[in-house]
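Support reply, case 0932

Customer input (verbatim):
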Amino acid sequence: MKPGSIRTNQFFMAAFLAASLFLLAFNPSSAQPRPKGYLFIIGGGTRPEPMMKRFVEMASRSGSGRIVVLPMASATPDETGRGLVEEFKQLGAKDVAYYNFTRKEAENYSNARLLAESGGIFFSGGVQTRITEAILDTPIHNMIRELYQKGAVIGGTSAGAAALSELMITGDEVRKPEEGHEFETIEAGNVIVARGLGLIKSAIIDQHFATRKRHNRLISIIAGHPEIVGVGIDEATAIIVSPDETFEVIGYKNVIIYDSGRAQVEVRGDRALSIRNLVMHVLLEGERYDLKKRRPL
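Our regenerated output:
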C-alpha cells in the first residue's frame, strides 16, 4: 500500500471514529420510539402559499393545532416573529404566537409550557447557530422533541431548516476567503459543522442550495460522513419527512441528494478531496426519497 493511501485511511478512520462519538454523545433521544410527527424543511427564499397552507393544515391535526413561531435565528426576531404570525393567520391558522427565547428564558422549565399541546413549531431564517445557542439541551428543546414524538409538525426555513439535523452546517469555513469567494473548494476539514437540534439524524440539511451554488460545501461534508446523506434544498422548495423516514418534495425547484456511503474517498496532502462513485439524485415536486434505504422511491 502506498504511503499516501495509509495516510488517507488513517485520516478517515479518525474522522469516522470522531463522527461516531459525536453522534453517540449527542443523541439523547436515540432510545426513543419512532416519532409520530413530521418535519417540514424549507430551503429558504419565497414561501409559496400552497406550501405554507399545507404546514397549517398539518399543524391542525395534532394537539390543539396551535402554531408557535421561534424567530431566534433572525437579526430582527420580534419583527420576523410578528411577520410570520400574520402570515400564518392569513393562511387560516386560528391560534398563532411567537416567542423570542433567550438562553436564560429557554432554561426556565415553566416557559416550556408555552409550547405544550402545539400542533406546529416553526423556526425562522437567519443564522442557525443563534437557534442552538438559545435552546439546545434546554426544556424548550425537550418540549419540541416531545411534541415531535407525539405527532406535531416541526418546520423551519433557511437557517431554521439547517438547525433541524443532528449534524448542522454553521455557514462558516476554516479558510478565511475574501467576500464573494466563500466555499470555492472541495476539501477535507474546511466546512465547520456543529451539533443541531437532532430531529433528523440520517441526513445533514443545506438550504438555498442550487440558487447559491452550495454544492462544494455539502460534498465536502458528506465525503467525511458516509453514515449520513446530504440533502440540499433549493429556495421555494421543501421536503416533508414522514415518521417512516421517507420524504416528499414539494415546491417550485429541486432537492439534490449526495450519498458517499459507497464512495472511495482520498485526501491529498493539501486536503483536496478525490471522490469516486459518489451518488447524486436531483428530485422535483412529487418525488420521494427513503432516508433509511438511501434511494428514491
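We compared this against your earlier run and they match. Two observations from our side: The chain is about 30% helix and 25% strand. The chain has a mean pLDDT of 90. Please reopen the case if you see a mismatch on your end.
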